[in-house]
Amino acid sequence: MKIDPKWKELNSLSDNTGQGKLSIVVPSEINNIKDIDKSQKYVYKKLKQQGNLVRRARMYREVSCLKSLKHPNIISVIDTNVEKYEDLDCKLFFVTPYIEGKNLDEFIKLSEDLSLDQIINSFVKLLDTIAYCHEENIIHRDIKPDNIMCFNNDINNLILIDFGLSFNQDEQNITPTSEHLGNRFLYLPELQNGNKTDKRSDITQLCGILFFMLTKKYPVNLQNEKDEMPHQRKDTKDYFAKMFKNNQLDKIYKIFDQAFQININERYQTIDSLKLDVENILNNQDNVNTSLEQIEIKLNQNRYLKSSKIIAEFKTIHEEISQYIMFFIDSFKEKSSVLAWIQTGYNQDFQLLQIQNTIGVKNQFDNKEIRVKYLIKYIGNEMIIQLTSDEQSREVLRCKLDDYNQHKSQMFEIIKEYYIEKINNIL
Predict the structure, then answer these.
(1) How far apart are CA 234 and CA 326, in angstroms?
(2) Is-above-0.70 flag for pTM?
């Protein structure tokens, strides 16, 4: 193919993505790129569909991501013209170093003697590479064995090479999140349902890489037609039972039990928590300090922090409401000791983000009583407080949590009116 005159083509390569034409090249005589090694080979990638605006933007995105990342295990960009991606007359290309060796797919399938230690140590380094990408606000979105090279066929030197579907959170204006993201290695439902910019999808794909390195099989999907996760399928279970010791197998199953959940909120939320569990596979016994670190990391996940913060504030509000109601009921004792308050049914739910309690009033003379349940719950970004008695409910407050103090006086007046009506019914 015709290439930029700064480069001389040696031979062409196949491109598994189908989006570009690849050639092995060396610098030509007129190549004056600073510090270039003219004795080395490079890979020249030319966009196949030059007239396709989406493909042009994707190549621009890929090169932009690569140029922003400086890491020994991520391919670098030597030369490019993708900044002209909006000019349809410009034939887009970029050049990267040529990496000797097989990709991870070929390497694992052909390997016969890899130890568990080698696999785990190699995988942990890959985790660190993706963690670096996430620190730089780059989400890869297409982590699979084809996109990872074993430099000089060394399992301990994995190079991430393809960022064609990557997403830069700082450059959303050039990233079409509506595009269909297909991956025959591991299908993730959230990548098809509009949530295409989540670091946790990268973490799940990394778990798929670990599964492949251990089994030489693609996980393909989180659950098959029998609702089996990849590690629950008979051929995999038989293989695991033959290859790993019981204490190792328990830890491997534990990882994949969490990794392959359908709900992304139930999978690994951080690379750090996954890394701790993976490193623990090689330990003969659980380490108490490691377990404490795992607990701390998991409790610091956003969903736990948010729930804890909301429930803590709800408790304060609950105490304030309870004290107000009980003080109001006690105020009648100046005239008569007939009325007394009764409290039952306190419950808090971290998952549903709600607290409920029941504070009723008893007529001790006639032995009549009314029970009023009040519920504090969180829906969307609003707190709702609701009173219920005799299967009739009344909403007494709806506002953002931060605005509670502005509205609580009006809420207490409504609560007071509600209890006055109910007390009248038992006198």
Answers:
(1) 61
(2) no
Q: How many helices (H) and strands (E) does the chain have?
A: 10, 17
d(CA 120, CA 143): 17
Structure tokens at 164: 């064609």
What residues does each domain of the chain span?
Answer: 7-97, 104-300, 304-424
pLDDT tens by residue, 366-415: 888 999 999 999 888 899 999 999 888 899 999 998 999 999 999 999 99
Three-class DSSP category at 74:
strand
Contact (Cβ atoms closer than 8 angstroms) between residue 37 and residue 25:
no
Q: Whats the size of the chain, residue-wise?
A: 427
Determine the CATH number of domain 7-97.
3.30.200.20
User: Residues with Cβ < 8 Å from 248, sequence gap 6 or more?
Assistant: 116, 281
Per-residue model confidence as pLDDT tens digits over 239-272: 999 999 888 999 999 999 999 999 999 999 999 9
Q: Provide the b/e sequence for 116-146 (b: ≥16 CB within 10 Å).
A: beebbebbeebbebbbbbbeeebbbbbbbbb
